[in-house]
C-alpha cells in the first residue's frame, strides 16, 4: 500500500470498492431526488385529449380567412366549455364556442383565438353573443394536442434519471404512483475522542462539543443517504474496534472522525487492519492528508480526520462520490469554474490545497475568487461563510493575484454542466 496517493487514485479506490444497493419500490413522493432504477411508462396519452391553451373562442381557422380590422369576421357564440366539460354538439358555419383554459377542444374546432383580442358585437361574449375577429388565425393556434407530452406505452422517465419535483408531477399525470429506486445507503457516523461531549452539554475543562457527527450526518443526508449518529467513542483501541465491528455488521457504510493520524491515541488504521482490509491511509490533499479507508465485514469503513475542515473536505472529495455510486447516480463531479485570484497565495505545501473561498463576478463578467482569511483546518465557520473551494495545484509555485484557478461549486448539483 502506497504511503500517500493522489486524490484521483483515492477516489477511484473508494468508489471502486462500493456497489449499487438493491432496488426498492417507493411511493412517488419519496422518489424525488433519487435515481430511477427502471424505465417508467405512461398508461395513457398525456394529455388524453386536445385542449385549449388559454381562455378564448374555439372555431375553425377557415372561418377567419381574410379577416381584417376594416372587415372583421363575425361569428355567433353557441356554447361555453369549462375545464372538465365536453361539448358534444356541432359547430356550424358562422359559429364558435367560448372555451376556458384546459377545456377539451370540440371535434369541429381546429384553433382557439384568445379572449383579449376578440371584439364583442352583440351581448356579453357568452352564448348567444356575436363576436368579431380582426385577423386570421392558423390551424392549431393555442391548442395543445392530445399526446403532446407522452403517448400511451411511451417511456417517460428513463432508468438512471434523477427524479425532480417536476418529474414527480409528470409521472403522476402518467399514472405512475410507485417508482423503483436504489435503496439509500444507511451510514453510521462515529465520532472518536475522549475530549468530546454531546452538544447538549456545556464543555468542561479540556472538553469540546461533538460537532463533527452533526456535520458528517448532514453531509451524508445531502448525498442522499440515511445518516445515523452513533455514541461518541473514547480514545482506546478496544472501544473503537468494538464500535466499528458492530457498525460494519449493521450499516452499509461506516464513517469515523478523529484518530486518523499517527499519534499515540489514533486507532482507526490499526482497527481497520485488524478487522478487515486496510486499503488507504493518506491522500495528497490539504486539508485532510490523513484519510483511512478499508473494508470490514464487507462494509466500507472510512476514517476521516478530527479537524472539522479536514473532515469536511475529505467527505466531499471522497465519501460523497462513493455514496452517490451506491445509489446509481451517473455524475460524481460538482461543477468547476475558472476564476481569477484577487490576492497572492503562497503555496508552501506541495499537496493539492483546497481553500475555502468566495466566488463573485467582476465588472468584466469574469469570475473572481477570494479565499477566506482563516484557512485553519479546525474550523467549520469559514466553510459556512464561503461558497466554493479554490484549488491550488500540486507543487510549491506561488499563485499570484490574477492567476486563474479552478473553483469547485459544492452547492451546485453534480448533474449541472457548466
Task: Give a brief outline of the structure.
With 418 residues, the protein is an alpha/beta fold. The protein has 7 helices and 26 strands. β8 (119-122) and β9 (130-133) form a beta hairpin.
Helices and strands, with pairings:
Elements: H1 7-16, E1 23-27, E2 40-41, E3 51-52, E4 56-59, E5 73-81, E6 95-99, E7 111-114, E8 119-122, E9 130-133, E10 143-144, E11 155-157, H2 165-173, E12 178-182, E13 186-191, E14 196-197, E15 208-209, H3 212-222, E16 226-229, H4 237-250, E17 253-257, H5 268-275, E18 277-282, E19 285-286, E20 290-296, E21 299-304, H6 308-326, E22 336-341, E23 352-361, E24 367-371, H7 381-384, E25 388-392, E26 404-408
Helix pairs in contact: 1-6, 3-6, 4-5
The averaged pLDDT comes out at 95
User: Could you say what the CATH topology of the largest domain is called?
Assistant: Molybdenum Cofactor Biosythetic Enzyme, Chain A
Structural class computed from helices and strand pairing: alpha/beta
Unreliably modeled segments: none
How widely separated are the two ends?
36 Å
Neighbour order of strands in the largest sheet: 7-4-6-5-9-8
Instruction: Tell me what portion of residues adopts beta-strand conformation.
Output: 25-35%
What count of helical segments does DSSP give? 7
How many domains, as an integer?
4
Q: Helical residue percent?
A: 10-25%
Largest sheet: 6 strands, mixed
Shape: elongated
For the record, what is the CATH homologous superfamily label of the largest domain?
A: MoaB/Mog-like domain
Return the CATH class of the largest domain. Alpha Beta
Gyration radius, to the nearest Å?
Answer: 31 Å
What CATH architecture of the largest domain would you give?
3-Layer(aba) Sandwich
Oligomerization state of this entry? single chain
Give me the count of strands.
Answer: 26
EC number: 2.10.1.1
Catalytic activity: adenylyl-molybdopterin + molybdate = Mo-molybdopterin + AMP + H(+)
Function: Catalyzes the insertion of molybdate into adenylated molybdopterin with the concomitant release of AMP.
Domain MoaB/Mog: 188-325
Amino acid at each position: 500500500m502506497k504511503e500517500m496517493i493522489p486524490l484521483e487514485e483515492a477516489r477511484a479506490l473508494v468508489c471502486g470498492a462500493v456497489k449499487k444497493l438493491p432496488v426498492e419500490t417507493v411511493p412517488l413522493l419519496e422518489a424525488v431526488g433519487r435515481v430511477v432504477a427502471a424505465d417508467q411508462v405512461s398508461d395513457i396519452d398525456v394529455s388524453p385529449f386536445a385542449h385549449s391553451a388559454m381562455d378564448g373562442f374555439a372555431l375553425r381557422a377557415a372561418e377567419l380567412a381574410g379577416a381584417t380590422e376594416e372587415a372583421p369576421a363575425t361569428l355567433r357564440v353557441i356554447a361555453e366549455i369549462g375545464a372538465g366539460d365536453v361539448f358534444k354538439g356541432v359547430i356550424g358555419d358562422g359559429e364558435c364556442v367560448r372555451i376556458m383554459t384546459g377545456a377539451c377542444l370540440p371535434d369541429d374546432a381546429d384553433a382557439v383565438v384568445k379572449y383579449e383580442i376578440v371584439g364583442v358585437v352583440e351581448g356579453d361574449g357568452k352564448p348567444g353573443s356575436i363576436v368579431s375577429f380582426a385577423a386570421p388565425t392558423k390551424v392549431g393556434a393555442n391548442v395543445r394536442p392530445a399526446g403532446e407530452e407522452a403517448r400511451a406505452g411511451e417511456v417517460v422517465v428513463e432508468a438512471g434519471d434523477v427524479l425532480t419535483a417536476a418529474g414527480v408531477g409528470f409521472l403522476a399525470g402518467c399514472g405512475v404512483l410507485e417508482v423503483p429506486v436504489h435503496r439509500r445507503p444507511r451510514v453510521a457516523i462515529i465520532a472518536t475522542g475522549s475530549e468530546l461531549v454531546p452538544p447538549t452539554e456545556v464543555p468542561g475543562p479540556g472538553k469540546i462539543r461533538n460537532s463533527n457527527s452533526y456535520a458528517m450526518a448532514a453531509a451524508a443526508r445531502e448525498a442522499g443517504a440515511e445518516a445515523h449518529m452513533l455514541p461518541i467513542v473514547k480514545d482506546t483501541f478496544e472501544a473503537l474496534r468494538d464500535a466499528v465491528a458492530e457498525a460494519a455488521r449493521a450499516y452499509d457504510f461506516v464513517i469515523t472522525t478523529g484518530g486518523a493520524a499517527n499519534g499515540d491515541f489514533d486507532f482507526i488504521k490499526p482497527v481497520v487492519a485488524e478487522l478487515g482490509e486496510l486499503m488507504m491511509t493518506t491522500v495528497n490533499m490539504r486539508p485532510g492528508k490523513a484519510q483511512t479507508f478499508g473494508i470490514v465485514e464487507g462494509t466500507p469503513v472510512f476514517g476521516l480526520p478530527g479537524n472539522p475542515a479536514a473532515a469536511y473536505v475529505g467527505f466531499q472529495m471522497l465519501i460523497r462520490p462513493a455514496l452517490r455510486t451506491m445509489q446509481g447516480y451517473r455524475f460524481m463531479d460538482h461543477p468547476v469554474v475558472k476564476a481569477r485570484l484577487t490576492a497572492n497565495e503562497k503555496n508552501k505545501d506541495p499537496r493539492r490545497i483546497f481553500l475555502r473561498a468566495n466566488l463573485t463576478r467582476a465588472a468584466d463578467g469574469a469570475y473572481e475568487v477570494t479565499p477566506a482569511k482563516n484557512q485553519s483546518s479546525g474550523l467549520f465557520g469559514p466553510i459556512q461563510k464561503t461558497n466554493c473551494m479554490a484549488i491550488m495545484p500540486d507543487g510549491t509555485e506561488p499563485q499570484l493575484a490574477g492567476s486563474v484557478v479552478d473553483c469547485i461549486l459544492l452547492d451546485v448539483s453534480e448533474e449541472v454542466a457548466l
